[in-house]
Write a structure and sequence with these properties.
Elements lengths: L6 H29 L5 H22 L5
């Protein structure tokens, strides 16, 4: 690594993000199920999911140092 002392904080933050995502995904679906009308739910879930992947793709494209 470019900065060896950053390895532990990076691993710790990666672990935190992984644990947080375990709670975020069910919370998003619960929120959408309660607040979005039934005829628009599939569209809202697909937009939400594709937005997450688009954000990750743009991050890797525009900020390759994050990889």
């Amino acid at each position: 690594p470019a900065y060896p002392l950053a390895l532990f904080p990076t691993l710790l933050l990666t672990l935190f993000v992984g644990v947080a995502q375990g709670f975020i995904f069910p919370a998003i679906h619960t929120f959408l199920a309660k607040w979005v009308p039934p005829q628009e739910r599939s569209r809202s879930v697909s937009l939400t999911t594709s937005g997450m992947y688009l954000g990750a793709t743009c991050d890797m494209l525009f900020f390759p140092s994050h990889v």
